[in-house]
Write a structure and sequence with these properties.
The chain is an alpha/beta fold. The strands form two sheets. The chain has an eight-stranded parallel beta sheet with strand order 9-6-3-2-1-12-11-10. Strands 5-4-7-8 form a four-stranded antiparallel beta sheet, with no helix packed on it. α5 crosses α8 and α11 crosses α12.
C-alpha cells in the first residue's frame, strides 16, 4: 500500500439535518475536504444494518447495507421523494448525536414512499441487482419483514415453524408479505446506487475508501436464522479475556463459526463475503483478525473467566480467499492478546497490522512505539474503541505521562493531539489514519464507543463546518511535511 494518510469518520457521524449522516451532500463535501488536505484515505466503520444497541460490529446481516445512510435529498432530486415527505419530521434535537429511536420510527416509512415512486422507474436495474445478490438478498429481506411481523422479538422466539424454516411456513409468509419483501430489497438497491456514486467521486479525487467488517455476525441476524449450519450448535459464544479495553474481559455473545463445516465447503461463505466487501471498498479492514488464528470461546451461560482459546482456521482460510482474490488489499486489526502464534499467522498472511499510539506509552519498549514499526503497518492515534486523544491525555497515569513526555517532549492539553498526529504522520508506517475527533481536537464527549458499555454508543456526529479551512490547511501541511500527500507513490 502506498504511503499516505487519511481520516476515520463513520458515515453516521457526518452532519445532516435528518438525524444521522448519509451518503448525501455532506459526504461529497467531506471528500472535497479530504482532497484539499491532501489525504489519500477515508476509513468508515461497518456499514451493515444494525440491531439492538446500534453497534455496527454486531450487524443483522453480513452482506446488507444500513438503510439509515440513504440520503433523502438525493432521492428527491431523482423524483423518488418530495421534500414534504420528510423535511417536516423531527429526527432529533441534538446535531452532535444520532437519535436511533427517531430513525427507527421514521426512516423506513419514508423509504417505502421512494419504493412506490421508483420500483417501476428502474425495472431492469433492480432485476439485475436482485439477481447479482440472490445468495443473500431474499433471506435478508424476509428476515427484516418477519422481525416486524413478530414484533421485533429475537428470531428464536418466533413461531417454531418459522425458526426452523419449514418450507410451507416460509412459502406462506413469502406470499403474504411479497410487497414488503420487495420494499426491503429495493431499499438495498437504492443504497447501492448512492454508495457507488460516492465511491466513484472519491476515487476520482484520489481518495481510497477503507471499509471494515467484523469477524462475527449478530446472534439475531439473517445468517444465524437462514444458515444455522454455519455456526456451532453448543451455544458457546465469542468474547475476549481481560485486556486493555476491559479488565474483566468481554462477553460479546456472537455465535461462533463451525469451522469444520466451513472447511468442508471450501470456505465458500467467507470467500463470497470477501469478494463482496472488496467490491464495495478499495481496502478492507478485518476486525479481530487474531480470531482466525485462535478464537476465545465462552461456554453457553458462562462469563469471560470461563472461556478458553480454541484454534481457528488460520492460513488455510486466507489461502482460499487469495485463490479467489489474489493479493487482496486487507488491513488486519491485530489488537488484543497477541502471542507468537498470532505473529506467525500475520507474517504468513502478509497483511499490515495496526499500531495505536495511545497504547504506546505504558511500557518502555512497546511495539506500539513508532521506532519499532515495520513499514507494512497502519498507525492510528486511537481507534473507534479508544477515547479521544485529548481525554486520554487528561486521564492517563503519572508514569505513562512521564514516559510520553520523555518520548515527545514536554506537552500540555493544548498541543497533545497535534503532537500525536504529527508522531503518527512522521512514522515509517505506510498508512496513517486519524479519527476525525482528534483532527478536531475534541474531548471525551466525542468518544464513539466504550467497549465495556452495552448501550449509548455509536452516537457522535460532527458539526457542520467543523472541518474548517484552518483545520484543512493545518492537516495538509502536516501531510506534505511527512511525505504522505496523494502525489507520493
Amino acid at each position: 500500500m502506498k504511503r499516505g494518510s487519511g481520516i476515520l469518520l463513520h458515515i453516521s457521524s457526518l452532519p445532516s439535518p435528518y438525524g444521522i449522516g448519509t451518503l448525501g451532500k455532506a459526504a461529497y463535501d467531506f471528500v472535497d475536504s479530504l482532497s484539499a488536505a491532501k489525504q489519500s484515505y477515508w476509513q468508515v466503520l461497518p456499514c451493515t444494518p444494525t440491531g439492538y444497541a446500534d453497534s455496527p460490529y454486531s450487524g443483522t446481516s453480513a452482506f446488507a447495507y444500513n438503510p439509515y445512510f440513504i440520503d433523502f435529498d438525493f432521492l428527491a432530486e431523482e423524483g423518488l421523494l418530495k421534500k414534504g415527505d420528510y423535511a417536516h419530521l423531527n429526527f432529533g434535537e441534538d446535531e452532535t448525536c444520532v437519535d436511533y429511536e427517531a430513525l427507527f420510527h421514521l426512516k423506513n416509512d419514508i423509504l417505502e414512499k421512494a419504493y412506490q415512486s421508483g420500483v417501476e422507474r428502474y425495472p431492469h436495474e433492480f432485476a439485475a441487482f436482485k439477481f447479482e445478490n440472490s445468495s443473500w438478498l431474499f433471506d435478508y429481506a424476509l428476515f427484516v419483514v418477519l422481525k416486524k411481523h413478530f414484533h421485533y422479538l429475537p428470531f428464536r422466539e418466533w413461531d417454531k415453524c418459522i425458526v426452523e424454516r419449514e418450507p410451507a411456513a416460509i412459502m406462506e409468509m413469502t406470499q403474504k408479505y411479497e410487497r414488503e419483501i420487495e420494499i426491503v430489497q429495493f431499499t438495498q438497491f437504492l443504497y447501492e446506487r448512492q454508495w457507488f456514486a460516492l465511491k466513484a467521486y472519491a476515487n476520482g479525487k484520489g481518495i481510497q475508501l477503507i471499509g471494515d467488517i467484523p469477524i462475527y455476525v449478530s446472534p439475531d441476524s439473517a445468517e444465524t436464522w437462514a444458515h444455522p449450519e454455519y455456526f456451532v450448535k453448543d451455544g458457546s459464544v465469542a468474547g475476549t479475556p481481560p485486556d486493555y479495553f476491559c479488565g474483566e474481559g468481554q462477553l460479546w455473545g456472537n455465535p461462533l463459526y463451525d469451522w469444520n463445516y466451513m472447511r468442508a465447503h471450501g470456505y465458500e461463505w467467507w470467500v463470497r463475503r470477501m469478494q463482496r466487501s472488496l467490491h464495495l471498498y478499495d481496502i478492507l479492514r478485518i476486525d479481530h483478525f487474531r480470531g482466525f488464528e485462535a478464537y476465545f470461546k465462552i461456554p453457553k451461560g458462562g462469563m469471560p473467566k470461563d472461556g478458553q482459546w480454541v484454534k481457528g482456521p488460520g492460513g488455510e482460510l486466507f489461502d482460499a480467499i487469495k485463490t479467489a482474490l489474489p493479493m487482496p488489499p486487507i488491513i488486519a486489526e491485530d489488537l488484543g492478546a497477541i502471542d507468537d502464534n498470532v505473529k506467525g499467522f500475520l507474517d504468513y498472511c502478509g497483511f499490515p497490522g495496526l499500531k495505536v499510539l495511545q497504547f504506546a506509552f505504558d511500557e518502555q519498549d512497546s511495539f506500539y512505539l513508532p521506532h519499532n514499526y515495520p513499514r507494512n503497518s497502519v498507525v492510528y492515534t486511537g481507534t473507534h474503541d479508544n477515547d479521544t486523544t485529548l481525554h486520554w491525555f487528561q486521564t492517563i497515569g503519572p508514569e505513562t505521562k512521564r514516559f510520553l513526555e520523555d518520548y515527545i517532549g514536554k506537552t500540555a492539553e493544548t498541543d497533545i493531539t497535534g503532537k500525536l498526529i504529527r508522531l503518527a504522520m512522521m512514522s515509517v508506517a505506510d498508512i496513517s489514519i486519524i479519527p476525525m475527533q482528534d483532527v478536531l481536537g475534541l474531548g471525551g464527549e466525542a468518544r464513539m464507543n466504550y467497549p465495556s458499555k452495552a448501550l449509548g454508543n455509536w452516537k457522535w456526529r460532527m458539526k457542520k463546518d467543523a472541518f474548517s479551512r484552518e483545520r484543512i490547511e493545518w492537516l495538509r501541511t502536516e501531510t506534505e511535511v511527512y511525505g504522505r500527500t496523494q502525489e507520493k507513490g
